[in-house]
Amino acid sequence: MIHINNLCKSYGDKVIFANFNLSIASGEFVSIVGESGCGKSTLFNIIGCLDSFDKGDYFFNNENIKKYNNKQLLNFRKHNIGFIFQNFHLIETITAYQNIEMPLLYTNLKKSERENIIYDVLKKLNIVDLKDKLVQDLSGGEKQRIAIARAIVMKPKVIVADEPTGNLDNINTYKVYQLLRELNNTGMTIIIATHNSSLADKTDRIIKIEKLWG
Ligand code: ADP
Ligand code: MG
Hints:
The chain is an alpha/beta fold. 35% of the residues lie in helices and 25% in strands. It is built from 7 helices and 9 strands. It has a 5-stranded parallel sheet with strand order 6-7-8-3-9, with helices on both faces. The chain binds adenosine-5'-diphosphate and magnesium ion. Residues 11, 14, 16, 34, 36-42 line the site of adenosine-5'-diphosphate (ADP).
């Protein structure tokens, strides 16, 4: 599904990737590990087409993303990639429901259609009771479950989760892992960056990135 060939990427003198290769098959659950600054977030931004690179090729389902224009990149990201972050990236002053609805507002779906989709996701993640709460009133674990709901509401093929449990205790880390595993069991491809080695050990494959600079 994802093939990255001979990727080169530098920020000024700082070499992040030099002929880096990565293949991830559809349906895999993999973790990306490596010391802070090695390029995990950079790689996720490249996978999500949020960042460019200097050299190499990125194929998604055998399509070279190089040929996409900006509108196609936006469309690609919207339908294929769901993002989850360490700091949740939710809007604190609106409800959980409104946050989950956010990606759907950029579609032609009617309000009632959006509602059906959101309820399905809320039920699937067992968080119906949180829907009317303001995000600012939720715990970290609850926020991350809302963020996962928002990430999957567009039914992406791939979820990239950048240190998704970095701000969570062990119990909530395990809950997030279980949710991601359930999503993986429904066929979603999951890629997580993590410093938590016991979490990485639970994934099906560990990919280590070497830090090339400093
Ligand atoms: P990781 O997620 O593995 O900790 P990152 O991918 O965030 O690492 O960053 C790799 C290195 O690249 C870091 O040293 C970071 O400061 C640098 N970096 C990341 N993004 C930028 C940017 N937009 N401009 C300049 N340097 C950057
Ligand atoms: Mg990072």
